[in-house]
Structure formats: C-alpha cells, structure tokens
Amino acid sequence: MKIGFFDSGIGGLSVMNEAIRQLSGNEFLFFADKKNVPYGTKTKDEVINFSIEAVSFLIDLGAKAVVVACNTATSAAIVELRAKFSVPIIGMEPAVKRAVSLKDGKKTLVIATPITIAGQKLHELLVRTNASEVADLLALPRLVEFAESYEFESRRVREYLKSELAKFDLSEYGSLVLGCTHFNYFKDTLREILAPQTKILDGIDGTIKRLKSESGAVSLADKSSKVEYFYSKQKVNQRKELDRLAMYLKRLDVMREIE
Ligand code: DGL
After folding, report:
1. Binding positions for substrate (predicted)?
2. With a 6 A CB cut-off, is 144 part of the ligand 1 pocket?
C-alpha cells in the first residue's frame, strides 16, 4: 500500500521512520513543505491551504492513506482535510491521555508550536482527558527553525531550552508531552534539563496504531520498503539532499531510545 506522510518540514520523518519499522514492505511518500515551513507561526487559514495542497499532491501520487505527521497542521486543518478527501487521513494527537494515565500525582507540560498551543483542538483534548487543571502549555517555535537547519546540540539550543523551561518548577512535572513532531530531535537536551522523574512522551505510536486500523495496512516483511521524498512537490533526488535526510533519520534512531 502507498502511504503518504506530510509535515511542514523534517519533523514528520520521526513518524514515518517508525511506520517503516512497523509496516515494512509498503511504499512511503514523504512530503516536507520546505517552501512554507514553519507553519506554527502562520495563520490558521494559511496552514489549511498548505495542507490541502500537500494532501491532494500525495493522493494524486497514489497514496491510499495520508498521515498528517504535523501537530500544527492537524490542529488547524484536520477537519477540512477529512471533509475534502475520501482516503483515511490520520492526524497527530499530543500524548496527553498517556500522561494522565501515568497517575503519578504530578503535572504535565505540553510543548508545541504557537498554533497548536492556542488551538481549540488541544484545549478540547485537555478537557476530555480531565487534564486542564494539571497541564501547563509552552510554545517553543524556535525549535522548528533549529531542527530545519540541523542545529541540535549548540549553545543556542541549550540556552533557549533552559531559559524557556526555567519559567516552570521542573520538579513538579511527571511528564513532558511533545506536541510537535520537530521536537523529537531534541530529546537528549530536554532529558538533560528535565528532572529525572519526568517522562518524555511523543504521540508517534498512537498515530501508527490509528494508521494501521484505519487503512488496513499490514507489514509485508518479506518485501522491501520503497521511500520517495518530496520538498513541496519537488522530488528529492540529489545525493546531497538524500544524505542530509539520512543524517536526520540517523539522529532519530538515537533519539527514539530516550524517554
Ligand atoms: N512539525 C510540526 C508540528 O508537529 C510543525 C512545525 C512548524 O512548521 O511550525 O507541529
């Protein structure tokens, strides 16, 4: 089965990487909207338009299911996408439910882009999971820029994260919910700053579970997976760019082990 993945940039690789692992033998199309990244600081209407363009491109290429591997696009556009297209459209949901199920008596900090933090979708999720009283929210838009320029371990990244997280008493938090797929690249630095008891939760497994149940995709382990990359409709085939994508994937393999 051809499965499309879409993000504003390279954050969505974190979701596709895991999907390839669990659904090997399928065909994967990855659309990074490099022309319009970042989404998190744009208007909702702009993100809706970018998302419709991207998803219709993936469906034209034969995608039978599309994963919106971007919390921001999910927050702004999932309703419009589902109304417009007939293939299953699977979005990202911050792992607030899992954070609540830890029942650790501690608070949860949700980090995401400004659109996601201000969006109705996250606020409805907090109400639905009875997390409104125990969750704090923080927008970290600069992490998206850092990730796009492959800047992960610099002093600037550390200082930005340290100063933003210093607004909270970190000893009070049992979990940190990554509400943006770009943030998966920073698990090591986040781990250094957070209190040891704070678990880092991403929404990747939940999304892949939904992808499997809604699309019926199964692993065909005897076949190899095929992956094609597009930067805003432009097929990526230069060696230099493919090598750069491989560097991102390598980093994600390391970050995957950090909780
Ligand atoms: N990767 C995105 C997310 O999950 C969006 C980042 C951005 O473009 O601002 O929210």
Report:
1. 7-8, 39-40, 71-72, 181-182
2. yes
